[in-house]
């Protein structure tokens, strides 16, 4: 859910329930996730890491990424720069 959008950035929330599947595809914008609740792993072509409350993850534009093994309801604050959907994928 998007909460704020201006040309240079947008801010939203993204939630995945425990056991849920992250079905997002790469975005045309750089992205920062801040985990506010829950536990999972973030997987990219080059790395993977455990995430939990307070974790901050940067994903460059166009990079494949997915949250997997969601063991607790995952709640994320998401910041896109520039605003989500403003660049072609």
From TrEMBL:
Give start-end ranges for the coiled-coil region(s).
Answer: none
* Pfam entry (one): Cupin_2
Superkingdom of origin: Bacteria
- TM segments? none
The Cupin type-2 domain, residue ranges = 14-80
Name of protein: Cupin domain-containing protein
